[in-house]
Every structure is written in structure tokens, then in C-alpha cells.
């Protein structure tokens, strides 16, 4: 465990009324990397066990602009919908995670290699001399600790994310799949995540589009 507790100087919170309902919006600053993140808290989660949690990596193209080459935006929507329909939960939105941590400009460079050379999401990064995944989940662990969440049901398809949170002292009671249907635009990306990063993506078995022509994000 390497957690320094979040300091009150680095946190501000208020109610946030959204189309889905009213969340508690907890903005916090990570002194280690300088990023500012946000936890959206819905319902009662303090001192609770088995809290439904999504730890979401920022993806401007997917989350804001609805890009279809990855499934980030759809996962964000589905996670918030599920938290509201269950009546409680936390979504932690982590900045500085573009392209699994390489940054936005580098991510778009990988898109060029994917579109022009047919490389997948991993090879397009390593061809540019960039790492495949540098994401730090420490800030998510620190805010979940601050919120006094006792254990989490993590909405994720990525076993590594569970191991990372556990290594930062978070008790993960269960993993809840967060599956987005495959389509011609995201199937290359999803397939690379399944076959090369070990994500659990059973919905790919049902897909019958024109892959392998799609490259992915
Ligand atoms: Zn994305």
C-alpha cells in the first residue's frame, strides 16, 4: 500500500444535477501527477460493502464525441445508467489516461497507424516507441478510501484493473461485466483487447460483421 490520504486542500465537492439524477460531484487533485479527477457519487455508499463502482479512464474521442472506434463512451453511459438504476454507486473519472496513458496527441498518432497500416491498438503504440499501458489507478483508490467505500463491485472487463486496485488497498468483492456490442468500427479494438490484453469480452463471439478490415482505436 502506497496511499497517502487525499488532503482537504485538494478536494472540493458539491451536488451535481444531471439528466440521470443528482450526484455528489467530488473533484480532487492528484499531487503526484498534477491531474484533476472527479468521483460522481450516487445514493448512499459511505461505509457500505459491495458498492457498485466504475473506474473510467478518460477518452475524449469516445466519451465526449461519441467515437465508435472504441467502446469508452458507451461504457461510461452504461455505467452511469446502472449506478442510477441500482440506486447507489460511484463513478471515478480519471484524467491523464488518454490512450492508456500515452496522451491525446500520441493516441491520435496511433489512430493514423491503425487506419493506414492496419496495426492494432497495441502495435500502433509500440511502433511509435510508446508503452501499451501506463495508467495509474492510485488516484481512484485514494478517492474510494476518502469516500469510505468498504468494498466494491467493479464494473470492468479488465482483470488487470482489479489487481491494480487491490494492490492499492481496495477490496474488490466482485467484477461486474460492462459489455458493449461489437460493431464494424470497434471490433478490431475489442478483439485486440480480448486477445492481447486479456479482457473478458464474450460478446465478440456473437459478432458476424466484416472484420478483419476494421482497425480499431
Ligand atoms: Zn476510448
UniProtKB/TrEMBL annotation:
- Broadest EC class assigned to this enzyme: hydrolase
* EC number(s) from the headed UniProt entry: 3.5.4.25
According to its UniProt record, which cofactors does this protein need? Zn(2+)
Domain of life (superkingdom)? Bacteria
According to its UniProt record, in which pathway does this protein act? Cofactor biosynthesis; riboflavin biosynthesis; 5-amino-6-(D-ribitylamino)uracil from GTP: step 1/4
**Which chemical reaction does it catalyze?**
GTP + 4 H2O = 2,5-diamino-6-hydroxy-4-(5-phosphoribosylamino)-pyrimidine + formate + 2 phosphate + 3 H(+)
* Cellular component per GO, a single term: cytosol
Binding residue positions for Zn(2+): 59, 70, 72
Q: Name one Pfam family in it.
A: GTP_cyclohydro2
Q: Which residues form a coiled coil?
A: none
Q: Which PANTHER family match?
A: 3,4-DIHYDROXY-2-BUTANONE 4-PHOSPHATE SYNTHASE, GTP CYCLOHYDROLASE II-RELATED
The protein's job, in short, is: Catalyzes the conversion of GTP to 2,5-diamino-6-ribosylamino-4(3H)-pyrimidinone 5'-phosphate (DARP), formate and pyrophosphate.
Protein name stated in the entry: GTP cyclohydrolase-2
Species of the source: Longimycelium tulufanense
Amino acid at each position: 500500500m502506497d496511499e497517502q490520504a487525499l488532503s482537504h486542500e485538494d478536494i472540493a465537492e458539491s451536488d451535481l444535477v444531471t439528466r440521470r439524477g443528482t450526484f455528489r460531484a467530488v473533484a480532487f487533485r492528484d499531487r503526484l501527477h498534477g491531474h484533476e479527477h472527479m468521483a460522481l457519487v450516487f445514493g448512499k455508499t459511505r461505509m457500505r460493502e459491495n458498492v457498485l463502482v466504475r473506474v473510467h479512464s478518460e477518452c475524449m474521442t469516445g466519451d465526449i464525441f461519441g467515437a465508435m472506434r472504441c467502446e469508452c463512451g458507451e461504457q461510461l453511459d452504461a455505467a452511469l445508467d446502472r449506478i442510477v438504476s441500482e440506486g447507489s454507486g460511484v463513478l471515478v473519472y480519471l484524467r491523464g489516461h488518454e490512450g492508456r496513458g500515452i496522451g491525446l496527441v500520441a493516441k491520435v498518432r496511433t489512430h493514423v497507424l491503425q487506419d493506414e497500416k492496419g496495426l492494432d491498438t497495441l502495435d500502433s503504440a509500440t511502433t511509435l516507441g510508446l508503452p501499451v499501458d501506463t495508467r495509474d489507478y492510485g488516484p481512484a483508490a485514494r478517492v474510494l478510501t476518502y469516500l469510505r467505500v468498504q468494498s466494491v463491485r467493479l464494473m470492468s472487463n479488465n482483470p488487470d484493473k482489479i489487481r491494480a486496485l487491490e494492490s492499492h488497498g481496495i477490496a474488490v468483492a466482485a467484477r461486474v461485466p460492462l459489455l458493449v456490442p461489437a460493431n464494424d468500427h470497434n471490433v478490431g479494438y475489442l478483439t485486440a483487447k480480448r486477445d492481447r490484453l486479456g479482457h473478458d469480452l464474450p460478446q465478440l463471439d456473437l459478432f458476424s460483421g466484416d472484420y478483419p478490415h476494421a482497425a480499431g482505436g
